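Thread: quick sanity check before group meeting

JM: Hey all, I'm pulling together slides for Thursday and realized we never actually wrote out the predicted structure for the chain we discussed last week. Dropping the sequence here so it's in one place. If anyone has concerns about the input, flag it before I start.
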Amino acid sequence: MKSLHKTFDILEYVILRNGENVTPSEAADALQVNLATCTRIMGELVKRGYLQKVSRKSGYVAGPMVASLNTRQNLYKRIADAAELPVKKLSEALRCQVNISVLHENERIMLAYHLPGYPAAPWEIFRFSDHWDTATGRLLLAALEESESKKVCKNCGIKPYPGELLRKIRDDGYVRFEQDSLCVIGHWIRIPGYPVAAFGFGVPQEFSDKAFELSAEAAEEIRKKLTAPVCQAY
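JM (edit): ok, ran it. Output follows.
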């Protein structure tokens, strides 16, 4: 099982480098994996098409199987596909990063995001547990049954349990709160038959009212796509 975990860690590390070459020594150092083990695992991933070897010196990049797996439909891909254009439009209008995520056990998994057209680096991870600091985290916690929400909060160190605030979020279906100099905003997407998803972002306070209005419009657009017949939506 430990070897399996190392394999996934290495694969995710290479993919999250966003097309940059990764050498075995670099991955081994970053992930605290034995160099020989890391080299062996990367070689096996090449054989299966999940990594591609650029050269012995340059290292590895993501292989064709990474793209190939994403060609198949599933509930999470449909959410990501439905959110792609609304999230992009919202991000470009507000000039900020916007992401849409789901909750898997104790972690948020980012399904899609958009960076506006200015120099910015994408997130270096796709798994998060800082739920209470984010719009998506608060929304996804609120969507859980209270017993499950309490369990996740306990595992993630959220104390005391914010039950009253979560109940309000559950009733509203959105969040809007101050964090440093920003107003953090988000809406959830709850469609029967789909996992609950949520998107969020932060904007300067002076843009918060317009941002909230645009956010609500984006949420409605995503919901319409997910409730349309598949042949029309995709």
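AS: nice. The chain has two domains: 2-68, 75-233. The mean pLDDT is 93.
JM: adding both to the slides.
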